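thought: user wants a sequence for this fold. calling inverse folding tool.
action: design(structure=
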């Protein structure tokens, strides 16, 4: 794997984790300003700037992922998505003040370790 390909993977996974953070922040803000009914809730989500930022980040991350898939075997590239679990967990803790228990940290690290093992077996 080239450094360029690794950086594309890292950028794509990082953008996905940032998208999760933005979507969480946007949906939380929209929920506090919610109006009655499904239409009001959907309207609040569509008008939330952070939801739109999150969707935009997902879009850019998906475009980068397409470049990755065009240059690497799927069985090699996809396990790196496991890094997103770690990044998202850290973003939730650092930016949203979410609690991190030993069980949550251990489970996330087990998922990531499994992804590394799969990637190394290719």
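)
observation: tool returned 122 residues.
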């Amino acid at each position: 794997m080239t450094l360029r390909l690794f950086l594309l993977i890292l950028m794509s996974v990082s953008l996905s984790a940032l998208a999760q953070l933005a979507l969480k922040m946007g949906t939380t803000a929209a929920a506090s300003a919610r109006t009655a009914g499904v239409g009001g809730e959907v309207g609040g989500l569509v008008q939330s700037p952070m939801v739109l930022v999150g969707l935009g980040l997902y879009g850019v991350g998906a475009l980068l992922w397409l470049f990755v898939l065009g240059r690497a075997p799927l069985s090699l590239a996809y396990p790196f998505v496991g890094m997103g679990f770690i990044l998202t967990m850290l973003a939730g803790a650092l930016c949203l003040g979410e609690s991190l228990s030993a069980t949550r940290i251990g489970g996330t690290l087990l998922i990531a370790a499994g992804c590394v093992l799969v990637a190394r077996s290719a």
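thought: summarizing for user.
answer: Here is the designed sequence. The chain has one domain: 3-120.
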